[in-house]
Write the structure tokens for this entry.
Amino acid sequence: MGLKYWLMTIGLLLTGTTTCFAADGTIDSGDTAWVTMSTALVMMMTPAGLALFYGGMSRYKNLLNTIAMTLAAYCLASLVWVGWGYSLAFGESTSLFIGSLGHFMLNGIDAASVSGTIPTLIFVVFQMTFACISVAIILGSVVDRMKFSAWIVFSILWITFVYAPVCNWVWGGGWMHNMGALDFAGGNVVHINAGVSGLVLALVLGKRNGYGKEPMIPSSVAFTALGAALLWFGWFGFNAGSELAADGVAASAFLVTNTAAASAGLAWLFLEWKLSQKPTLLGMASGAIAGLVAITPAAGFVTLPYSLVIGILSGAIGYFGVVVLKKKLGYDDSLDAFGIHGLCGMWGALATGLFASPAVTEGAAGLFYGNPGQVWIQLVSILATIAFSATATLAVVYVTRFITSGLRVDAQEEQAGLDNALHGERGFEIE
């Protein structure tokens, strides 16, 4: 009794179904079980993993606000996705830039609908979890100073007008897909998209009061480390689940995901230890996330040795983005969404063009396997995502500001802390 048998068994328990199809074009219970489990893993990443990761890095007076905004992002994106987001991303269309509204409120999709070898409804929910974490990542750039009401409006608009189009381009049959761009689990769609959008929103909002002049100490590095561990765990569903099948590619993606995260966490740790003489837990946790980000677009395409290269360099790139670049340019990316997700997402997308191997996925070959043109394709996709994300997010920001009469909390609320000022609650009682 192999892996697929146990996946089928677990799937039956999770889904409550006794249907088992094995023929092509029908439901395969092993694949369905694996994607169902992966969906649950990715779901946990936002309201649990990212909430703790970001909450621990925020100041004690804004801990609950950070968690509340993360949870709100998950709830809002969930409803937008089943309402019209999925249709815009994956709806049938003659356009190479956006889907149709043919699946508005999942019209035309029911329990009998099949996508590949899994129920379409499972595919819808799996993709929904990607939309949820993408918008939540942006929060890392703007904690401590954004209105809760503005965040709600921004999240709805961003999923609709920024995330859905890029998702369509890459995974919904759009122009990047037709061009041959490789993005296994979300380098462009999730990380570059969210990282660049976070930077744009942070620049419009401006710096936190006291930024660069007073210490902004994390409320709980322990929370952040636990959040990183939950994100790491959930990332196996994020990457290996994106194969949408329980097969060898999923197993390879699982392996290289863990390898890249481990090597990146150590790379950041040792680099920080060398340069600042302090091997911090926060640095090691941030490095692991940087490695997970970078391996995401490459997970289903690269072999084990190159996952080590991707991981080690992503640890260095993340450290540079957080410690050097942000200080040099002077922008206030509160929890380093751009420094980790944006920059490492770019590196991962480019690395896919270098290291993609046909031995992992047939037909996928990068520069090191005789296809230098893939590097150019990846570069075009990266630059296009940056340009669109920045421009479209800026438009969404100005519409949000008009609707909510401003994006930023007033100075008194920011000084007092958003937990008590906005929510009437406190994460910690400080004597």
Notes: The longest strand covers residues 114-115. The chain has one domain: 24-417. The CA atoms of residues 139 and 359 lie 38 Å apart. Confidence is low (pLDDT under 50) at residues 1-24.
